[in-house]
Each structure stands twice: as C-alpha cells, then as structure tokens.
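User: Fold both of these, please.

Assistant: Here is the first one.
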Amino acid sequence: MSAAISNVRPKADKVLVDIVDYVMKYKISSREAYDTARLCLIDTLGCGLEALEYPACTKLLGPVVPGTVVPHGAKVPGTQFQLDPIQAAFNIGTMIRWLDFNDTWLAAEWGHPSDNLGGILATADWLSRNNVAAGRAALTMRDVLTAMIKAHEIQGCIALENSFNRVGLDHVVLVKVASTAVVAQMLGLNREEVLNAVSLAWVDGQSLRTYRHAPNTGSRKSWAAGDATSRAVRLALIAKTGEMGYPSVLSAKTWGFYDVLFKGQPFKFQRPYGSYVMEHVLFKISYPAEFHSQTAVECAMEIHERLKASGKRADDIKRVTIRTHEACIRIIDKKGPLNNPADRDHCVQYMVAVPILYGRLTAADYEDDVANDPAIDALRDKIVCVEDPAYTLDYHNVDKRSIANALTVEFNDGSALDEIVCEYPIGHKRRRTDGIALLEAKFRTNLARRFPTKQQQRILAVSLDQAALEKMPVHEYVDMYVI
C-alpha cells in the first residue's frame, strides 16, 4: 500500500510569489525602460495596422457575435470595433503578431513580449472608458507603459533559463502568465487574488508548438499570442470574482506543471525581476522575418548588391552557406515544400533567397503570388546551414546576446564572394541609436496605410513625445486610432 498523500494546502510556489510581489510592489525607475517602452508601443501598434491589409488576419477580428457593440468597451486600433476586453485583447494581440514583425526576446526560450500589449491595452482602454463614465479618473498611457515593462520582464526573465520549446510547448504560455499578472493588477485585484490569477494561468492548458514546425506549420502561430493574452484577461476577471487559486500548481508532485509538462525540472532564474528585458528587447525594424534570420537577411541584401556589381546572377550560384547559431538551425533550417506564408516566414532559406533575388523582403513576399516564382525554390535548394559553436555561445552570452549569421556564396565557375558577416541586427540594443530613426519611419509608414494625413499627424505628435504620451488618458490615445 502507498502512503497517503497529505491534503494540507501548501504555501504558494516561490515562482508565483515572486511574480506577484514584482507586479504589486516593484517601482520602475529606469528612464531607459520607459523610453524603450514608448518605442515598443508605437512599433507594435504599427505592426497591427499593417496586418489589417491581410484578409487572413481580418477574418478573425471583430466580436464573437457579429454586430455586437459593448458600451464603454475597448476599441481595436485601425478598426471601428468596440468590444469586451477579452475579445478586444484577442483582436489586438492577433493583429500585432500576424506578420511576425513585432519585438523579440531570444534566450533559452524565444518569444515576443509585446504580444502582451493585446491584453494590456484592451484592459486599460476598457477601464478608462468605464472610469470616465462613472466620474473617476482614467488610466494614463504611463500606466500602459509600466504594465508593458513588467510583462516584458516576467516573460523575458522566465525565458532566460527555461526552454519550453524543448518540451514541445509554445512560448505563448509566458504571454498568458505575464499578461494575467499585469492585467490582474490593473483590475485592482488584491495580492491573494493576483496570486490566484497567476496560478490559474499555469494550471491552464498550454499550446503545443506543432503549428510552428514542419510538417504542421500554419497560421495559428499568428493568432496564438492573441489567444493567450485574451485568455489572460479572462482568467484575471475570473480571479476578481474571488475564485480560488492553486498554490502548488508548479511543484505539486505528479499533478503539477513541472512533473506533467516540464520533465520534472523546476524553473531556474538568472536574475531578479526589474526592467532588464525592456531595456534589451530586440526590434524587428527592417524585415518581417523570424528573428534568428534577421542578420542573415541583412547579409543577403548585401549579396544582392554585390551580384549586381559583379554582373553575376542567381543562376550562377552553386552554393550559399549560412554559418549560424544552433537556435537558427533548430527552428528555421527547412527543406522541402513550403505550404503557406506561415511556413515561409519560418524558413531561413526562403528568407535569404528572396532578398538575394529581389533586393527586398516584405510581408507580401510570403504570399503565394511571390512564392510561386520557381527561382526562389531553385535558390533555396542551394542554401545550407552549418552551426558555428562560437556563434551559439555568443547567442547565450549575457554580455553579447548576438544573433550572428555569416553568408558565403560560391559560383559555378569556381569563384566566390568574400564571406559577409553580421552579428547584431539593426534592432539590437547595441545598434539602438541607429535603429530609432528607422523604427519611427516604420511607424510613419504603417500609419499611412490606414489613416488620412491629419490623423497621422495627430498620432505622431503625441506618440513621438515621451512626456505628452505618458500623461495622455488611455481612451483618448486609442480614440486617435479609430477610423
């Protein structure tokens, strides 16, 4: 006979407590974090506006029941939808992730911390509109930036040492956890209720990564984060009712997250929560491409120019070798048929072939009308990846966090181009100063996709002014994005 299992309710897991104490008590003092959060905000919203040009995205947007309008509900930027905060979070989260163009965090686990903006902005807007209707003060955009910094930090710090992809789980589990924590705090939950909410996020079912990998790569990867951040809002609202939590959701023997989903291993942490992740986040500025390929795309653009200068063509290429890091090979080194845009933007060979051939890589280049060019697949077949262990080490080095790629082109006549090396993409912190002007230009381009000139100018006047943005009521800022 086995010994009886104790039914004494344990203390909450330290991982939960640390998240809640950080969200409830920690004061963000870093000016750099707030400045970067503003850049992150405008870049993320801009990505969402660009996604509205794609019917595959917009078909998922709007209320669950067509025609539903929620009084004092959250508005979805770039649309006329006004929804409950759960569905608004799904809409916003889906828009900003659709084209794989928003920010990135690379460590033991990968992800896109600005995915959390779906839940944060929807909740803040909804609260602000209801506060004003009741004669109370609205939330300000500084509150949104603070929540963004904290959500980035929770997602990113857990990701530093804990690989969910190695056990087959998708990184959106961390979006769900981070969004739940910050949204619960925004909703005014007390400490015990926030703790309950975060435990509910961990006990929830978690997404498999299969929709990101061959042979199942598909468009769910573009709405998975919207699903996660909207679920976070739902769980926080459930906890607000007084619904109980599960204190040892991670550590409970047999039935906890560690034993069921993490091969029995507890989480490891490299650093305490602060504002590190927002300060070091990676922006996708030039190319809508999976981040491990960003430097490879920069190299490929240079190859395009060298080919033009030399008079050679892609047909003259015998082989392209990508010297890269292990994560790139594990995620996006892909041969064989590519079945849809989601398949193509997770194939490094495709993302290198297009700029070599055309001198560009845009979101439209993943669509069928471009992908059907046989020259792309012909060149893809000539591109191979090899790991450079030094690049892998530098990828994990906390002082470097490089995302290096180096490309060598060999020609049929036996000649070759000198290897082109790029260690840090334009969106890296080490190139932040150079990247800001380009990031702002990207935002201007995305505003112009959706709004008339006068409306663009109003948005820009506030969005590019840190002090003006921080003090602006959330609902007034969101109203500027309504068409």
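And the second sequence with its predicted structure:
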Amino acid sequence: MPVLTGRDGTLSGMGFRKRLAIGIGSIAWMPRFLPQIVKCDGTIQKVTGDRYSLLDIADLPNITLDVPGRKSGIARRTRLLCAPDGDDWLIAGSYFGTEAMPQWVYNVRAADTVAVFHGGRQWECVPTELAGPERDDAWQVLRAVWPNFDLYEQRTDRQIPVFRLRER
C-alpha cells in the first residue's frame, strides 16, 4: 500500500523517479529481493566509480558511510538513504522492515567515529544512536524523506535504530 500525501492523493512536490521509488519500496514482497537489490546497487556503484547508486537514480538523499568493522577493524563502506538535519545527517537501520538488523548498525554502534562521503567531500562524524523523544523527532524527519519508513516499522517487531551523524 503506497504512502499518499497531498490533497489529490499523490506524492505532491516529488519528482517522478522519487514517487516511483516510493511506490516500488512499498510493495509487500520487495524485501524478499534484498540480496538482488544490494547486488544491483553494488554493480551500479562499481560501474560508475561510486558516483551513482540506486538512491541517486531515485533522487533520494544519501551518503556513503565508512565504518570500521567491530571485529576486524577493516573499513566497511555502505551507501545509505539519509535525511539532512541542520548540519547533521540522520540514518536508520530499517533494511526494508525485515527482522534482520543491517550489519552496518552493529559496526556504527561500536565506532567512536565514522567517515561520511557526500558531494565529493569527506569528513569524520561522531555517531549517536537516538532514543526517546529525540529518536521520535528524528524519525519524523526521516519519514518526510522516505514515507515507506512507516511500512517498514509495521513489518518488524524490532525498533528500527536511528543515528545522528554529527561532524567532528
């Protein structure tokens, strides 16, 4: 069931590609294809020299996150949907609302700092996992960017973790 806004029942104010992505992302059986989606996205990133991803094609705000593996210490790179919030970035470990927690969440929880790449720039950020009213407020900012977060929340019994990335 797609998330609809606006008086006319459309995702007003959004471009066609973003509306299409939201519609596709709302399909109930879509999470079954996560491995294929991730592989396709990786191929797009590799072919374009990390300049583009599925998120870029869908006109969705995104960052590339480098975080050391909690066990190996080896930097792990992940492209993530995000929501700008002032000078900070908000990210959510939704994984389409599946019961599985994204692996990057465990690494971010264990990290003191992460590297963020956006718009040809790189900087260090301090990640903070949000809770209580601060998480609730951040969740609303994320929902404004990606309305399907509501669906993801309904699909899972786990609380979807929300992180604030603040430049160091």
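Helices lie at 16-25, 34-47, 54-57, 103-110, 132-145, 149-155.
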